[in-house]
Design goal:
240 residues; 7-stranded mixed β-sheet; alpha/beta; binds S-adenosylmethionine; 21% strand
């Protein structure tokens, strides 16, 4: 990692109240592996060091905002792609166990190999679609948290994520700016699926100032067994 990118990471994380200094070597190794992976199979649209550091690493760390991961142990990252937010979170929190999920096997293999290369024993990637995995008893109603970044609109996220959670568990969704319509639809979907929206926090991405929103849903009771609907339907026909 070049010194300018390292400074951006330090400053960006500091704005979030996070000291990355002890983890800088691991972030540098992650950056190198991501760039190498990108050269082989286009994993992420972000290519430059400042972009990767701010829009992947620091952006992922904003998930710690509000303390919603405190008290958790098992965390699913739904639609992890190249490993975000899982990998930055797992670097900072060895006490949390992450299960990054993605339907694209190539991406899951990249996350698995990268976690292994970084010596992250708290990352267990899983290939598959949320609609199918949450039909398996070992993945339904099991997890304390689901984190999700840049995957779908709120009603779709609610249908895909809430079945993973135990009652009392939280979905922490990292979004850009959201419209009142999307929020309303998300609130109605949460209700239908056994949850409710408990927090909506608008904030700015450190250094760049881009608008971000953290939406937190709590699962109150078991999700009705008819959900999620079969593969692809939550996206094609959102509940609300
Ligand atoms: N979270 C990552 C990030 O922020 O960089 C990746 C975001 S990418 C835009 C969305 C990812 O979600 C894709 O890798 C896609 O394969 C995955 N995905 C979408 N729907 C899914 C589903 N139903 N089950 C599992 N993975 C899904």
């Amino acid at each position: 990692m070049n010194p300018e990118a390292a400074d951006l990471l330090r400053c960006g994380a500091q704005e979030l109240g996070i000291d990355v200094e002890p983890a800088l070597d691991r972030f540098a190794a992650l950056l190198a592996l991501l760039q190498e992976g990108n050269a082989r199979f286009n994993l992420t649209a972000l290519k430059t060091e400042p972009d990767i550091v701010l829009k992947h690493f620091v952006d992922s760390l904003t998930c710690f905002g509000g303390g919603h991961l405190e008290g958790a142990h098992q965390v699913v990252d739904l639609g992890t792609g190249a490993g975000f937010p899982t990998l930055p979170l797992a670097i900072m929190r060895a006490d949390l166990m992450f299960t990054p999920v993605d339907s694209t096997r190539k991406k899951v293999e990249f996350v698995r190999a990268t976690a292994e290369a970084l010596g992250l024993h708290n990352v267990r990637p899983l290939a598959g679609r949320a609609e199918t995995l949450t039909r398996q008893p070992k993945h339904r109603d099991r997890y304390d948290r689901v984190v999700v970044r840049a995957v779908a609109a709120l009603p779709v996220l609610a249908e895909l994520a809430l079945p993973f959670l135990r009652p009392g568990g939280l979905l922490v969704a990292q979004k850009g700016p959201i419209s009142p319509e999307e929020l309303r639809a998300g609130q109605r979907a949460a209700g239908e699926l056994g949850g409710r929206v408990i927090e909506v926090e608008a904030f700015s991405l450190p250094v760049l100032g881009d608008a971000r929103t953290l939406v937190v849903m709590e699962k109150l009771r078991d999700t009705p067994s008819k959900y999620p609907r079969r593969e692809g339907v939550p996206n094609q026909q959102p509940l609300f």
